[in-house]
Write a structure and sequence with these properties.
CATH superfamily: Methylpurine-DNA glycosylase (MPG)
Number of strands: 8
Number of helices: 3
Helix content: 10-25%
CATH topology: 3-methyladenine DNA Glycosylase, Chain A
CATH class: Alpha Beta
Number of domains: 1
CATH architecture: Roll
Oligomer: single chain
Largest sheet: 8 strands, antiparallel
Length: 183
Amino acid sequence: MELARYLVGKIAVHDTDGGRLSGRIVETEAYPVGDSAGHAFRGETPRNASLFLARGHAYVRFTYGSSFLFNVTSEAAGVGAGVLLRALEPLEGIDLMQRFRGGARLLDLARGPGRLAEAMQIDFRQDGIDLCAPGPLWLATSRLKTGVIGESVRIGLTRNVDRKLRFYERGNSFVSGPRRLRE
DNA sequence: AAGAAGATTCGCT
DNA sequence: GCGAATCTTCTTA
């Protein structure tokens, strides 16, 4: 949960064969230990194994038949908790992202977790890699100033809906969700 | 082995 | 703004 707040304003970078893709994280959601909405809630399975890695690893999940979800693990090894990256403000490789996203408008390139993963070319190949170690995919701090961070309930869940575990940069147009959840 | 649910997206009204 | 599409993964028989 602290990590979720910390990640807002940081930069996600992915070096692909086609070039570098990067974007500023503007929206996250925390899925802490014991959260019944979290993918780790029912214990470790082959698919969520990387969620039980130490803090700072990637956990990639496929859902709803067409979307990848990109998470960062948040706890010690064996615990099982993470932070979902829900939206990015594209910085580098925007032309590439537009190609992957079928020519979507700049605003819609990475506004939403599934879109973000598609724009950043995140899939199972990135599952389980260490985001703090040198490699094709990592997280970086930014010189850019981070705005005021707001918090709200999480989006799109059917369980544990009431907890305020979503963090976002207030007023940023690249944040997903209805307007009242962006201000 | 089959069924149900899901951290979504897109298109149409 | 609403409803359908889509398929992976877990649960239950």
